[in-house]
From TrEMBL:
Coiled-coil residues: none
InterPro entries, alphabetized: DHFR-like_dom_sf (IPR024072), RibDG_C (IPR002734), Riboflavin_Biosynth_HTPR (IPR050765)
Residue ranges, annotated region (Disordered): 16-35
Protein name: Dihydrofolate reductase family protein
All copies of domain Bacterial bifunctional deaminase-reductase C-terminal, residue ranges: 2-186
Matches recorded under Gene3D superfamilies: Dihydrofolate Reductase, subunit A
Domain of life: Bacteria
Length: 201
């Protein structure tokens, strides 16, 4: 059984929107694009590279696919991520796209949850969900996420899309590994472990 792993950069207040650049995703008037790099460091980069070692595919929503497909095919070939991103298999969930131009990309057919269940049951390595907040929330609602790998950066953004938005399914998490980089970024891996427990002091 393949694992579905949500890999996401978060601000301290949980914002995941447009970490990579000012014009990445201005939806809903978002004005804080590019917030991640100033609060990142080489340890964060090494951790992210490690996320891709056991994975042989990415699962992307339409918006993230569009951003990546516009960038990676012509990205600097000396960037160690360029070859990796272009060569990996990409599975794309979209209700509007009818064809995909980026190499090694496949459009999921039918119901997204059913299609992802089929992917999980197929042969292969881990499948990383990168960005793709709406898709990640769909996967959470259908209990399809096997692990979260998060970088939580020391900055408060205040507005924007959040990975764990209002209405997220209450879920207990088991820490797999948690560390802090010299810039103060928390690099954490967590596995869902059923329902939260409740108690009082």
């Amino acid at each position: 059984m393949r694992k579905i792993i949500v890999c996401t950069f978060l601000s301290l207040d949980g914002v995941m929107q447009a970490p990579g650049g000012p014009d990445e995703d201005p939806e809903s008037g978002f004005e804080h694009g590019g917030w991640q790099k100033p609060v990142s460091d080489e340890e964060v980069g090494a951790a992210i590279a490690g996320w891709y070692e056991p994975a042989d595919a990415m699962l992307l929503g339409r918006r993230t696919y569009d951003i990546f497909a516009a960038y990676w095919p012509t990205a600097d070939p000396d960037n160690p991520f360029t070859e990796r991103m272009n060569s990996m298999r990409k599975y794309v969930a979209s209700r509007t796209l009818t064809s995909l131009e980026w190499e090694n990309s496949t459009l999921l057919q039918g119901d997204v949850a059913d299609a992802v269940r089929e992917l999980k049951a197929s042969d292969g390595g881990d499948i990383n969900v990168v960005g793709s907040g709406d898709l990640a929330q769909t996967l959470m609602r259908h209990d399809l996420v096997d692990e979260y790998r998060l970088t939580i950066h020391p900055v408060i953004i205040g507005t924007g899309k959040r990975l764990f938005a209002d209405g997220a399914v209450p879920t207990a998490l088991e820490p797999v590994s948690v560390s802090t980089t010299k810039s103060g970024t928390i690099v954490g891996a967590y596995r869902p472990s059923g329902k939260p427990r409740y108690d009082s002091y």
